[in-house]
Amino acid sequence: MILTIEDQNRVRTLTLNRPDALNAFNEALYDATAEALLAAAADPEVAVVLLTGTGRSFSAGTDLTEMQARITDPDFTPGKHGFPGLIDALARFPKPLICAVNGIGLGIGTTILGYADLAFMSTTARLKCPFTSLGVAPEAASSYLLPQLVGRQNAAWLLMSSEWVDADEALRMGLVWKVCEPEALLDEARRHAEVLASRPISSLMAVKATMVAPIRDEVAAASARENALFAELMGAQANAEALAEFTGRRGSA
Fold first, then answer.
1. Which domains does the chain have, with CATH numbers?
2. How many helices (H) and strands (E) does the chain have?
3. Neighbours of 92 (CB within 10 A)
């Protein structure tokens, strides 16, 4: 099971479960996570979704081996939802979404926090947006959501530097809401999730709908801009060299 699903006290916990790949998203995991969000949105017994990862990683982002295949393999078959479908499911998710960042978060493992209503992070976790190191554009409307969340300069550093940010820095920026010791992370996230889940779902959804309504069009526009630039840059020289270096390192490991 690349995604495990557990229900307790109206909280549905989704756990990314590709530990050997550091929970990197391949097409199958994008599809499974998008489907799980759509199902949770429609389930009247689910009030809150809590998203976390298994092992030492939250998510290492898009599986770069599969990104390389997308460029070089003419027979590559995209998933039913893929990355765009996951982002659409996140943008439309009508209930509280809580992220518990248990370990490293790369790419979508960081930018997904733009869609979180609450984010918790382990003291040992680290985050990075590696777009410039891969020679590509931002993703997941992060060019809009991160400045909204953490301010222009913090967002510029996150999106332009391809440098790691530790838990203390993520908390200072406002990228996450609370930092916890590793052994307390899930309990703390679940405790807050259950507080929310004890409230009427209709009221929770009304609060979220009114909070996201003013930014819905901006998120869609940012995604469209990013996707166009991503398509332009993916496979170009800087990106091709970065992916070749990555797959070469994996091959020699």
1. 3-182 (3.90.226.10)
2. 11, 10
3. 13
Q: Is the model's pTM score more than 0.85?
A: yes
Which of helix, strand or coil describes residue 95?
Answer: coil
Contact criterion met (CB below 8 Å) for 16 and 54: yes
What pLDDT digit, counting tens, does each position of 33-50 carry?
Answer: 999 999 999 999 999 999
pLDDT digits (tens, 9 = 90+) for 171-193: 999 999 999 999 999 999 999 99
Question: What b/e readout covers 201-210, taking b as 16+ CB neighbours within 10 angstroms?
Answer: beebeeebee
Instruction: Count CA atoms closer than 13 A to 38's CA, side-chain side.
Output: 12
* Higher local confidence (pLDDT), 93 or 244: 93
Q: What is the DSSP letter of 17?
A: -
